[in-house]
Specification:
Layout (H helix, E strand, L loop, with lengths): L1 E6 L3 H12 L4 E7 L2 H11 L3 E4 L8 H11 L4 E6 L4 H10 L3 E4 L4 H12 L7 H12 L16 H11 L4 H8 L3 H14 L5 H10 L8
Parallel strand pairs: 1-2, 1-3, 3-4, 4-5
Helix pairs in contact: 2-3, 3-4, 6-10, 7-9, 7-10, 8-9
């Protein structure tokens, strides 16, 4: 059973998601929040598998709430809610520790699938979508300074991180480096551990911020 907390300041959104989750056998709604402060408090109290987080909320926005939850509860995944014109907010949420994002007008089955994907420890955003997102956002804002360090990784891991940052899948990385898919997957797993990244999306953001990839790569 996957436990879920909903955080959204719109009662109609919460109501619709509440009904959806109630009709799904493997998902259990254990709390609802109308702002970021409530979301953090509920997450700390119940330690859910997933927090479905709106971005624009009173008292504390979704980005700040995501950062607080990611810092305090490493096993709780945050799935942000957004609309197509919220790219800057999505970027901020991903950097804060979110494992992906949902668009509010996406299909109900897709929402359920996204919750399951994130609860399973994977990033919601597929490599090709990640590449487009990072390219778009990187073109709007400079890389932060100082840049984070990746000094502790090997030359091969740096190559893999660069390819992850370009949005390549494990199979594509294997083809690029002439290694097996299993070896590519192992390199990615070691990068997640060494760089303390929650998922593949965080590796993409880190690769950009470290200067290993740039817009258009």
């Amino acid at each position: 059973m996957i436990s879920v907390v909903l955080a959204d300041d719109q009662p109609l959104i919460r109501s619709a998601l509440r009904v959806l989750l109630a009709e799904t056998a493997d998902l259990a709604l254990i709390g609802e929040a109308a702002n970021g402060v409530e979301a953090v408090a509920l997450a700390e109290e119940h330690r859910p598998d997933v927090v479905v987080m709106d971005l624009r909320m009173p008292e504390m926005d979704g980005i700040a709430a995501t950062a607080a939850i990611a810092a305090a509860l490493p096993d709780t995944r945050v799935l942000v809610l957004t609309t197509f014109d919220d790219d800057d907010y999505v970027y901020g949420a991903l950097r804060a520790g979110a494992s992906g994002f949902l668009v509010k007008d996406m299909g109900l089955d897709d929402i359920l699938a996204a919750i399951r994907v994130v609860a399973g420890g994977d990033a919601l955003i597929a490599p090709s979508v990640t590449r487009r997102l990072v390219d778009t956002l990187a073109g709007r804002k400079p890389a932060p300074a100082p840049r984070p360090s990746v000094a502790g990784i090997t030359d091969r891991e740096r190559e893999v991180l660069t390819l992850v940052g370009r949005g390549l899948s494990n199979a594509e990385i294997a083809g690029e480096l002439f290694i097996s898919i299993a070896t590519a997957k192992a390199h990615v797993a070691r990068l997640l551990t060494k760089l303390d990244a929650r998922d593949r999306v965080q590796l993409v953001i880190l690769a950009y911020e470290c200067g290993l990839v740039s817009p258009g790569d």
